[in-house]
Amino acid sequence: MKTFAQFLPQHLAQHGIPAELGSVLESVVSACCDISGKVRLGALAGVLGAAGTGNIQGEDQKKLDVIANDILIKVLKNNQNVAGLASEEEDTFVACNGNGRYLVLFDPLDGSSNIDVNISVGTIFSILAKSEGALATESFLQSGRAQAGSGYVLYGPQTQLVFTLKHGVFVFTLDENGVFVLTQEQPQVPVATKEFAINMSNQRHWLPPVQQYVAELLAGETGVRGKNYNMRWVASMVAEIHRILMRGGVFMYPQDTRDLSKPGKLRLMYEANPMSLILEQAGGAAGDAAQAMLDIQPTGLHQRVAVFMGSREEVEYVERLHRV
Ligand code: AHM
Ligand code: MG
User: Fold this and answer.
1) Which of 237, 238, 240, 303, when mutated, tests ligand 1's pocket best, judged by the most ligand atoms within 8 Å of its CB?
2) Could you tell me which of 76, 126, 147, 225 has the fewest CB atoms within 10 Å of its CB?
3) 195-323: which CATH architecture?
4) 4-185: which CATH number, 2.115.10.20, 3.30.230.10, 1.10.10.10, 3.30.540.10?
């Protein structure tokens, strides 16, 4: 059994990945170990409930949102290779170290609505190389394709780390001593699936292509798809994407008619791009129904995007429905 500490230097050497990038990943992972400790204790550590504050997107913050954010910022600021960071919970980017070559973007605790009811939550992260010149918001506005790596830590029945440095996807499980141990190499998302994930309560607001797509799935073997589908909705993207990585499926958070100025609920830089890189590296697909997620040129740090990701056959099918 290989630990993360044993695996990482070998992986870097095998693929000629810079040691500085490995060290940034190590920092993220060590922060997530701390966050896992807080999540596990819940009420015993007094970390449940609302923080009484809001983030820039007008969302109420939970205590654990703030704690996880603070832990990541503290650890990353201490790493000389990190030039700056951007968080779903921060108004603007945070400058870190002048000589750093990397930028880290993260959603410190995704799935906040699940924290107080003991359902899986997770940390999502994306690592970018910093271009030359002064650090500015524009430094972060790189397409998902440009990511140097990405991943997530799922705080579920097991705490699991899943990451890619663009040479495949690796899955680690936190053991009883707080050490991440490699438990799966290169999982592949099945091309076809019979499982979908969408918040059905928004159905009446969906645009016609999504209405049609989900109606076809619900029709099962009596409809044009000719097979029965199952549905899951955890309301934690990390849990959802992990399930899809393990056994296939399609995850959707589409734009809807309530506010057409908002392309969707989820954020391109902190949620959609890092998860899309993981899924693409594992043979899956991801897009906003118009183009591949990783090809979108970002225009803002907190930009939202419509999300369709998972098993290739379904993502391509729903994209086709948007084209006709
Ligand atoms: P958050 O970053 O505020 O936690 O929101 C993102 C979460 C995702 O994890 C999940 O897929 C989605 O929001 C759930 O939305 P809904 O509450 O509409 O079911
Ligand atoms: Mg989130």
Assistant:
1) 237
2) 225
3) 3-Layer(aba) Sandwich (3.40)
4) 3.30.540.10
How many Å apart are CA 271 and CA 50, to the nearest integer? Answer: 22
E strand or H helix at 85: strand 82-87
The CA-atom distances, in angstroms, between 250 and each of 7, 207, 315, 319 are 31, 18, 7, 12
For 24-55, write each residue's pLDDT tens digit.
999 999 999 999 999 999 989 888 888 887 87
pTM: 0.97
C-alpha 30/C-alpha 269 separation (Å) is 22
Taking the CA of residue 112 as reference, the ligand 1 atom at the shortest distance is: 4
C-alpha 114 – ligand 1 centre gap (Å): 9
48 is in an annotated binding site: no
Q: How far apart are CA 239 and CA 260, in angstroms?
A: 28
Structure tokens at 156: 């579920």
Residue ranges of domains in the chain:
4-185, 195-323
